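Summary for the steering committee. The consortium agreed at its last meeting that each partner would contribute one worked example illustrating the joint modelling workflow. Our contribution is presented below. We chose a case with several input lines so that the handling of multiple components could be demonstrated. No manual editing was applied between input and output; the record is shown as generated.
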Amino acid sequence: MLIFLGKRLIQALIALFILITIVFFMFRLLPADPTAAMVDASLSPETQMQIKASFGLDQPLYKQYFIYLKNIILHGDFGMSFFYRESVISVLASRILNTIILGTTAIIFAYSLGLILGALMAWYRGSLFEMSSIIVGLFFKAAPQFWTGMIFLMIFSYGLGWFPYSGIREAGYEASGIMKYFSMDFLHHLILPATVTGLYYLAQPMLLMRNAMLEITNEPFIELAFAKGLPERRIIFYHAARNALLPATTTLATKMGQLIGGIVLIEYVFSWPGLGREIVMAASRYDYPLAQASFLLIAFVVMFYNVLADLLYGFLDPRIVY
Amino acid sequence: MKSKKINLLFNDPLAVAGIIILTIFIIIAIFAPQIAPYDPNEIIRVDGKIQRLQRPSGEFIFGTTYMGRDIFSQVVIGSRIALRVGLLAAIFVAIIGTAVGLVSGYYGGWIDTIAMRFVDILYGIPFIPFVIILVSLLKPSIWNIILAVSILTWRTVARIVRSQVLSIIQRPYIKAARVAGASDFRIMVFHILPNILPLIFVEMSFIVGWAIISEASVSFVGFGDPRVVSWGKILHTAFNNGAVRVAPWWVAPPGFAIVLLVISVFLISRGIEQAINPRLRDGR
Amino acid sequence: MALLKVENLSTEYDTLEGTLKAVDDVSFEVKKGEALGVVGESGCGKSTVMKSILQLLPRNGRISSGKILYKNKDITGYNNKQLREIRWKEISMISQGAMNSFNPVYNIGKQLIEVMIVQGNYSEKEARDRAIELFEIVGLDKKRLNDYPHQMSGGMRQRSMIAMSLALDPGLIIADEPTTALDVVMQDRILGKISELQKKMELSMLFVTHDISIIAEVCQRLMVMYSGKIAEISTTHNIFKKPYHPYTMGLINAIPTVVEDIDHLVSIPGYPPNLINVLKGCRFAPRCPFATSKCRVESPEMKLVNENHRAACHYIEKADEFREKSHRTETWEGLLV
Ligand SMILES: Nc1ncnc2c1ncn2[C@@H]1O[C@H](COP(=O)(O)OP(=O)(O)OP(=O)(O)O)[C@@H](O)[C@H]1O
Ligand SMILES: [Mg+2]
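What follows is the complete predicted structure of the assembly.
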């Protein structure tokens, strides 16, 4: 188990390292002015020179690469944001948590709803309930999440006035540190974006669960559970669904990766101050250090969830030995 | 054998619905300039007055934008970009993914290891952020969006093709072909590829939908090609002009167009999948 | 008094080809403290009878007519709630697929205790003590309670299954081919165990098998089924000594040890008939060496041979002659031409 975890972590670290490298070359080679990636063109020439020197931009590319690596790995230093004029890390520190909270809530919503619906769909196969669940799932899968977001804003925020339409807390609402995440106000802001994101990812766990459940319902142990006289609800969830969980949950990791990647759009629509929105803003302001760091951090979050998901499988299926 | 499978596809009502919807979109795209009553960028004035935010009516089927442009015409013209992006991305992705998957699965060994590790790494790259960054570094254009989407998306095709190849090369006739002295290239292209082609089609139709949504997403956050009208860009402009608050007719049509088109390719892909995999067909 | 009385039970399955009559007009009873064996070739409807009793038929199956009286109450019309009062508390089962009858994601102890807590109102502690006691009865180490099904051998799983079937002191235990999936040595041991428990605890049992040689060891009475119908039913002793139905004769003939003076063993040639388009006449007729034209058109009634022996054959009065001939290989082989 520990060995497995170790291996998995090393793999993730190698992947991260390669990604850092790819990002380095992307930002150095693609733009017309390679120094634009690190130096704010609006600064005075002297300051520009100074910064260039500190990032080694006057050096050959391979040396720059090592300086870049050293800065990131040893000091966690991604440079200065052109726009905010402070270190990228301090800009992003608060964004990371916002993104993780939104993403985690959304995926939990998608999977708990999807798994329950999928289980019931299989159990009551051929019913109207099954048909309508499929249609709903397919619709939200085919609709771009930002559009669903706009529609939901239109209906639930502007139309019915149930939810706030942007941001993460009401103006004037102040709470410090971690406490700000434990307020009704925050929750109120979280519901709509998390629901919209969750609906987009609903279809896959739902359908996988349904298919796995269909197979499980023919297993002898389900017949035995009936013979034991257990209540139907217990048979559906405790016996059948529990066994059908695995195929759907093995997709959790890649879905979480996709979700965190796609969260850009939701954060944009709902003005959610997370990494994704920051990427869009940074890229449109040509704030390359910030864009680059947001991108790497998002990739980092994705990998973190991948490792987490692998551990989850072992927990779900006692037959898996690492 | 082939035609039987195609028959199966046409016997599946959902797949047929998908094919019909897609065909309608293709026709609309081809005749877009004839169908659209206005130039999508034209600022429409009546008696010198700009027709801002007009509700849907006989004159403006989907209403007008804040700048007084006809939304119906924009949606009609937008179908061209959606289809172009979808189809081209799917073709590129299929070509790259199939090539890598074939070679990787066929030769195995270190080629396979390297290719698959690389695919693993690609899987770790967040998709939309990557596309946004690449497009903004290269400057926004349709081609750059297609490029960015293709660079990441071939990973799925490569994996699927490889796993298929691994099982197909075990079959006796492949071994026979080898003994008969067929070249590696010949075996891959003439003996293995035809077997996985249907599966590649399934994947391609998914990618069409995926690419359409991606283009819309990237355009929506402001990195669309400035020279063209696409559904994502209509929504971008709508969002920035507060249409969510004041003009639902501006928001709904382009979105429904995307939903319909994407559902149609989903249905087609599902139809092909069931036609080639009898187990799915009978066993619900 | 009969504990379980099945009267004119018929059970059908809907299939793509039409309605399949898996059980056709079957009547029998199980008395308190006795084990009734049910024998017949694969597909003759044994499991269907058992599933009908517990009403565990799959979606496409249904009881089309007949009564199932348990302790004199007809349980065929019971709703889910009433059925839950019967299931496991009154009638438990050791199922055919016992190898896969445990839920793979919970340990055996949990599954044993579950039924006691949910169905038997045991407290957690009582249930655990009872589980240990049950494991002792079936000869398993209590440490094994923490094993997951995949960590146990087939034999151990089957023992656990027996333990579970005893958990709530049911009135009747249905054992549907409890040993088919095991190797021969293990089969003997498990059978020994079941038989020992049955006699010691005076269990009422329905014991299903397609291997008639097993019955002698375990069951006091025996019912032979052929193609959805009862061919013959009586005490084990009677049937082995004097079978009246040619099918039973054939089955007994195929056992190595019981009849010694035959040339060599013969199993009955041919296959059981299709159950969707049932032929008229006796269903065994196409394979019966003694069949006459009457057999091919007229379905035989159940006939009383004596007080507790019934057989469904037109010619029970010729049974002595048939029995004699049935020992000869040619009798059966002649059928092939
Ligand atoms: N779910 C079902 N749907 C349709 N037909 C079925 C179903 N289950 C059983 N049958 C059919 O009903 C008949 C009786 O089956 P059953 O399982 O009761 O036989 P069995 O005597 O228990 O055989 P075995 O020794 O193989 O367990 C068979 O012809 C079988 O094909
Ligand atoms: Mg059976």
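The radius of gyration of chain B is 22 Å. The interface with chain A takes residues 120-121, 123-130, 132-134, 136-138, 209, 213, 216-217, 220-223, 232, 235, 238-239, 244-245, 248, 251-252, 254-255, 258-259, 262-263, 266, 284 of chain B (CB under 8 Å).
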